[in-house]
Amino acid sequence: MSWPILYAQLVGANRHSTSLGKVWLSVLFIFRVMVLVVAAESVWGDEQSDFTCNTLQPGCENVCYDQFFPVSHIRLWCLQLLFVSTPPLLVTMYVAYRNQSDRKRLLEGSGRSSFLSNKCQEEDLNTLKRRRLPIAGALWWTYAFSLLFRLLFEGGFMYALYVVYDGFHMPRLVQCDQWPCPNLVDCFISRPTEKTIFTVFMATISSICMVLNMAELSYLVAKAVTR
Amino acid sequence: MNWGAFYAVISGVNRHSTGIGRVWLSVIFIFRILVLVVAAESVWGDEKSGFTCNTQQPGCNSVCYDQFFPISHIRLWALQLILVSTPALLVAMHVAHRRHIDKKILRKSGRSSPKELERIKTQKFQISGALWWTYMLSIIFRILFELAFLYIFYLIYPGFRMVRLVKCDSYPCPNTVDCFVSRPTEKTIFTVFMLAVSGLCVLLNLAEVLYLIGRACQRCIRSPEEGAKGAWISQRFSTYKQNEINQLIADHSLKSKLSVTKKSPTEKDERCSAF
Family per UniProt (chain B) (predicted)? Predict the structure, then answer.
């Protein structure tokens, strides 16, 4: 499972999105997945190997690293991106279910009336596959729920990151006194400024995505109200 | 998602670019992204492991590295390339929006055959009217992002030369220690190269802006009655009017069909009698 596979799945769901949904997908893949893969992973690449403590005590560095970095930023972001990308698949599943029931109805209908030729049936099935369903009725509710879940996951992960790392700033120095460290030792984090810059960048883009989702939800509600 | 996939996304916009726009895109991918991936990343690969300070004090290396390299050149260039390439997607969105409207009009006027829809999908739009403004805006954003990143580079690394030696006295370094940067000359060469190509891209964008303005002026001089903006709007308006007329005809024929239902069997008899 890699990012291109996820991209292929989401592009399929994109057909039934609003324009804001399409913008959201582009922002997600260009400013988050791509930046994560191309830049952020190399910044965090040496996070444990270059985590240095001012002691020769074996095991102290491991224990202190584990205390201050329970989950790496990179892993949290990967999980966030996966969770946030999956609600649109609810829409894909619903569309597939609708297409299947419509196809069944079409085949039953053609079976009863014998004068419908095979060619007409094939054409109808093809249009069924390629058609774009309007966002109304049950599809509207599915879409609205997928947006709500997206918002919850985004907010949830941002909050988790904030709580685990006490804000978005990465300090240069942390002090640790876990066993087997002999006393309070200074431990130095590698590339803290670069990490802070990328954390703030990813948090900003995450907020932009949340704003896009809220705008899309308001647009859907307004559309339903006018209807 | 990597540079290859990114290239596929951005080069889709190429169809609606000017000639200068296509040259710019090639310069971006060959002289910047490819050079970044193939060469620059290996030059900066050991930037931290090869950064050595004249001390055995644990943590001094990390802290001094962090003080002198708040963000690596490679990451700055990657962000710059991503941000500079994305305004082109504005044009892609505008084209998609135009195609969507054209499809809607076609369906309403009852000419939605697969052939016509296919023609719309592959249709190449002229850069005039609203598309001209979107394209212009995307180029202006490109120029702004390039200049912003050049300025950020200048702020963080004043002077484009990478020094061999930096002196550092941040805690926990015991006193002012000498720290040595790895591969400074090679880094200087690549920094100068990337900045030169960045400058070239800015010039290409400026040339494209002038070219577009020149073309628009030329169009204005040739046909002063219909401005570039008006042409598309007047065409759409006439199409909508035609749709209204078509709708009226359709309604009228439907009404006549519903009022006289006995005609159809007679017609059938007439057809049969022709055999």
Answer: Belongs to the connexin family.
Q: Which amino acid is at B180?
A: F
Which residues of chain A make contact with B78, given a CB cutoff of 8 A? 35, 38-39
**Section B201-218 average pLDDT:** 93
Chain B from 229 to 268: CB within 8 A of any A CB? none
Mean pLDDT of the region A50-63: 91
pLDDT at B108: 79
CA angle, A9 then A90 then A36, to 5°: 45
Measure in Å the smallest separation between the Cα of A66 and chain B Cα atoms.
Answer: 18
**Cβ A208 vs Cβ A23: under 8 Å:** no
Distances, alpha carbon B164 to alpha carbons B95, B177, B181, B185, in Å: 50, 14, 5, 8
Alpha carbons B146 and B136: distance in angstroms, whole number: 16
DSSP assignment letter at A54: S
CATH of domain A34-88+144-226: 1.20.1440.80
Q: Phi first, then psi: give them for residue B180, nearest 5 degrees.
A: -110, 130
Q: Residues B242-261: what's their mean pLDDT?
A: 60
Give the residue from chain A lying closest to B58, CA to CA: A54
DSSP letter assigned to residue A177: -
Q: Give the tokens for residue A227.
A: 């209807």
The three-class DSSP label of residue A53 is: strand
DSSP at A39: I
Task: Find chain B residues with C-beta within 8 A of A50's C-beta.
Answer: 48, 62
Cβ within 8 Å, pair B82-A30: yes
- How far is Cα B41 from Cα B78, in angstroms, rounded to an integer? 10
Weakest mean pLDDT among A100-109, A193-202, A203-212, B187-196 = A100-109
| Annotated domain spans of chain B | 3-223
DSSP state letters, A76-120:
HHHHHHHHHHSTHHHHHHHHHHHHHHHHHHHHHHHHHSTTS-HHH
